[in-house]
């Protein structure tokens, strides 16, 4: 409770504009401001340069990419890298794989988390503390530490190199349940009473009242889950074998590992893989911030 | 999976006339709602935990099938192994090299942004950009930068007469290079978390301090940073756990090399269990248990401290 209480609107934008009461104009202040601007400029360059260069490089020809001194601006925009990347690996298929896997995981986690969070908040339970402890415990186990038995289990079930293998372990999450529980708890208790008087059972109350009233939290969770699923690396690396079943993230790596790793193709592949996540980060930032700090409030 | 709640729903919808029957129905509904999650947890977290312990106590054949019980042998082997000591040291170094610059860097950035300057919104978004990069996309992009012959980093260095550095091929630089990539890709997340923290500092406190003449460094030191304390703490623990679990960037950039100089605990587990056709699940599992314990220790610290803070509040 002590950490950031997540109120999305406040965190979404920059801090509210505060009037600047006594802005000094002494030389000392001016110097201070100059230092601030200088540091910011360096920071922006460091943080943004890799993004810029990845995009610029994706449009450069091979000679430009390895030219000396290094070319920082593409002279003639060429789309060859993009078509090359699509030809070199089954990029379209892998794109579709990633989209399918991330979508299924997101939808499934939404449903399982909504149900579990609802049970914790609105339903009577005998062993609530114990069950809650189980959900809490799942958050503490690093996936990498249990990846071997999971690989063995799914291979034994015949799900190696299949979509089932890619999604099954991620259909529920303690994190999602916590985040939604936190949000559901803020609904006024009278709502449930009113619904009961109107004759609405739990099922109806859940889908007609709770879900619509918690859209921001659900959006935050969806974005968060989709991003993590889309970005997964270790699990898809070991559970898939063929290029057709690889996800985009693993496909990217094969661009780098191929015989004559062409930097242009690699950058083009990376830029293509960025499009959905970039869109989510740009358009969903206010939801993301809410999701990020949800883990801090237990 | 979704059939369970559907099946149970009517019970909740039509409350039985007697209160007791109704209560029973609600209890049943609660379990039905929890069931899908509990099944997933049992199959893919609970059972694997047990099986990891089981595997770690067994020797295995070439295909990874457990052959005979060896008790704690794998663990005592680890204790006496110089390689494993190196792996732990590399893991600690990697964590240090990613967490400290990552958290401090983000703190400096958000503090700089507090100095009412033009285009704060734009800058904040710019700093959050790396958040859109996956581990794989950031790693392949940096791999291109780090290329000793054609990479832009050595290209720029040679402009000022320095010269070519084997960013990923020289064991003196490889860990730092991988850590730098990690710091960069985590920066977006760190900035978002700390910005959120700054946004929730009550405006009156900052105003009061400003009226008292505090600004710049003084304001940061006396007000902003202390008020960010819980966020910084949260971020440090999360970054540490995250760093301990790092895998993709190492796999893509260095494969643990050169000379095992970037072989962390997670990578070592991968190498023993999956790389180069190896299926040494027994030894790999023992290392996985060590990883589990280290991460649990970090989480325990987080909960311990949080607990205390909650009491104070």
UniProtKB/TrEMBL annotation, chain B:
Record-linked CDD domains: TM_PBP2
Source organism, top-level taxon: Bacteria
Biological process terms in GO annotation: transmembrane transport
Short name of any one Pfam family annotated for the protein: BPD_transp_1
Annotated ranges, domain ABC transmembrane type-1: 84-302
Family: Belongs to the binding-protein-dependent transport system permease family.
Subcellular location: Cell membrane
TM regions (residue ranges): 28-47, 88-113, 125-146, 173-198, 219-238, 284-306
Protein name: Glycerol-3-phosphate ABC transporter permease
Any one Gene Ontology cellular component term annotated for this protein: plasma membrane
Its membrane topology: Multi-pass membrane protein
UniProt xrefs under InterPro entries: ABC_transporter_permease (IPR051393), MetI-like (IPR000515), MetI-like_sf (IPR035906)
Region of interest (Disordered), residue spans: 1-22
UniProt keyword terms in alphabetical order: Cell membrane, Membrane, Transmembrane, Transmembrane helix, Transport
């Amino acid at each position: 409770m002590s950490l950031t209480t997540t109120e999305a609107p406040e965190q979404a934008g920059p801090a509210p504009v505060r009037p600047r009461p006594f802005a000094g104009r002494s030389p000392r202040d001016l110097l201070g401001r100059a230092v601030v601007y200088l540091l910011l400029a360096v920071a922006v360059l460091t943080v943004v340069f890799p993004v810029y260069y990845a995009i610029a490089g994706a449009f450069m020809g091979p000679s430009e990419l390895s030219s000396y001194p290094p070319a920082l601006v593409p002279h003639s925009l060429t789309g060859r890298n993009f078509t090359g990347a699509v030809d070199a690996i089954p990029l379209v298929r892998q794109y579709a794989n990633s989209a399918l896997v991330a979508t299924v995981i997101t939808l499934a986690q939404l449903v399982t988390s909504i149900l579990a969070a609802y049970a914790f908040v609105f339903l009577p339970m005998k062993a609530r503390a114990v069950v809650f402890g189980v959900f809490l415990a799942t958050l503490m186990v690093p996936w990498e530490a249990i990846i071997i038995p999971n690989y063995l289990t799914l291979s034994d079930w015949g799900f190696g190199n299949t979509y089932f293998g890619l999604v099954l372990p991620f259909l529920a999450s303690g994190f999602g349940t916590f985040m939604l529980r936190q949000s559901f708890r803020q609904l006024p208790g009278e709502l449930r009473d009113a619904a009961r008087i109107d004759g609405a059972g739990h099922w109806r109350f859940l889908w007609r009242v709770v879900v619509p009233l918690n859209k921001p939290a659900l959006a935050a969770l969806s974005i968060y889950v989709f991003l993590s699923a889309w970005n997964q690396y270790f699990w898809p690396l070991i559970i898939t074998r063929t290029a057709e079943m690889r996800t985009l993230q693993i496909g990217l790596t094969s661009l780098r590992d191929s015989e004559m790793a062409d930097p242009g193709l690699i950058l083009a592949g990376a830029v293509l893989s960025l499009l959905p996540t970039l869109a989510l980060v740009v358009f969903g930032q206010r939801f993301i911030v809410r999701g990020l700090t949800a883990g801090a409030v237990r | 999976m979704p059939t369970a709640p559907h099946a149970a729903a009517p019970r909740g919808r039509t409350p039985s006339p007697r209160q007791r029957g109704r209560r029973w129905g609600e209890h049943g509904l609660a379990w039905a709602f929890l069931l899908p999650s509990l099944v997933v947890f049992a199959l893919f977290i609970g059972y694997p935990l047990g099986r990891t312990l089981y595997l770690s106590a067994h020797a295995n054949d070439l295909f990874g099938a457990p052959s005979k019980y060896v008790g704690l042998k794998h663990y005592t082997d680890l204790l006496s192994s110089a390689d494993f000591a190196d792996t732990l040291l590399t893991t600690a170094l990697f964590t240090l090299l990613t967490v400290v610059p990552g958290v401090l860097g983000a703190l400096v950035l958000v503090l700089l942004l507090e100095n009412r300057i033009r285009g704060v919104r734009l800058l904040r978004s710019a700093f959050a950009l790396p958040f859109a990069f996956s581990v794989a996309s950031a790693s392949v992009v940096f791999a291109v930068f780090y290329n000793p012959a054609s990479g832009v980093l050595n290209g720029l260095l040679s402009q000022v007469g320095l010269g070519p550095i084997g960013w990923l091929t020289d064991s003196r630089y490889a860990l730092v290079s991988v850590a730098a990539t990690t710091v960069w890709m985590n920066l977006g997340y760190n900035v978002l978390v700390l910005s959120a923290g700054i946004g929730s500092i009550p405006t009156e406190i900052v105003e009061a301090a400003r009226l008292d003449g505090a600004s710049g460094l003084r304001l940061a030191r006396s007000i902003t940073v202390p008020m960010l304390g819980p966020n910084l703490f949260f971020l440090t623990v999360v970054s540490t756990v995250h760093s301990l679990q790092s895998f993709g960037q190492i796999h893509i950039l260095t494969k643990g090399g050169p000379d095992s100089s970037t072989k962390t605990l997670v990578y070592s587990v991968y190498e023993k269990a999956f790389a180069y056709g190896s299926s040494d699940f027994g030894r790999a599992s023992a290392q996985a248990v060590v990883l589990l314990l280290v991460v649990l220790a970090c989480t325990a610290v987080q909960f311990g401290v949080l607990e205390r803070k909650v009491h104070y509040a």
